[in-house]
Specification:
Length: 147
């Protein structure tokens, strides 16, 4: 990215059966000028402000870009798409959580969401809720920092 290193995998995102965002109407979030065949890191590289951005800024921008790529023209994610993203793009955080009551409660809340769609705020809350309950986070906390 602009000569910067980006820790996200440089892979194109594509979900079978998902509508092509370039063929859909323009989102209220941002113009959809980049088709999904372009990798996330290349999409982020086109955002000049992120060239010197911190790792945290790039992480949030990556989540926002993934959300935008898979959201409908109204800037919302269908429940099925959200669950698919959790399974395909967030699996290291969801792995091993399937039988835990708190994880099941989160997915039940997703199923009971009245609109049947998630906006970006709801999506980020879901990601953070899963993260704080994940085994992977516990592994991250146990890593010793080299000084």
């Amino acid at each position: 990215m602009c000569g910067c290193m980006h820790s996200t995998q440089d892979q194109a995102l594509h979900l079978e059966g998902e509508p092509n965002p370039s063929a859909a109407a323009t989102s209220t979030l941002a113009p959809r000028t980049m088709p999904r065949s372009i990798s996330i890191s290349k999409q982020l590289a086109s955002i000049k402000a992120l060239c010197k951005g911190s790792d945290l800024e790039k992480a949030i921008a990556t989540a926002a870009m993934i959300f935008r790529n898979f959201s409908d023209p109204d800037g919302k994610l269908g429940k099925a798409t959200a669950k698919n993203l959790l399974q395909t793009q967030f699996r290291n955080f969801t792995e091993g959580q399937e039988t835990k009551p708190r994880y099941k409660d989160l997915l039940s809340e997703l199923d009971e969401h009245t609109e049947n769609k998630l906006d970006f705020e709801d999506f980020m809350i879901l990601l953070l809720s899963i993260t704080v309950r994940s085994d992977l986070l516990q592994n991250i906390w146990s890593v010793k920092i080299m000084q």
